[in-house]
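Student: Hello, beginner here. Can you help me understand the protein record under this note? Any guidance would be welcome.
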Amino acid sequence: MTAANQQIADKLKFNENGLIPAIAQQHDSGEVLMMAWMNRDAVLETLETGRVCYFSRSRGKLWRKGESSGQVQKLVDFRYDCDQDTILVQVDQLGVACHTGRRNCFYFAARDGQEVVISEPEVSVDELYGKK
């Protein structure tokens, strides 16, 4: 690990579980794709490799985006907010970002007091994860 990347990780404010929220945004369109969590190791791996890595709370381990689906996120820019407690990763998303097969994870909307699904899957979950 480079000293510069270690210094960046040292500045970030992780919560009591050692995690920090990370928002993924498509670098050229501004589309917000997803939100996930990173721990220090995920931050360092992302900065070192240029491939976005998160921490999976359900699996209790590092999750390299696209490792099972092939829907990889290439890091374009790594940013953090003024409080150093939220990360924004601007990415080049290969394929869909959501595990449901949608382009992004924000497909529910509250409109006129109703929950509305505003986008449909672009690829089936079975196809996405090779469960044919």
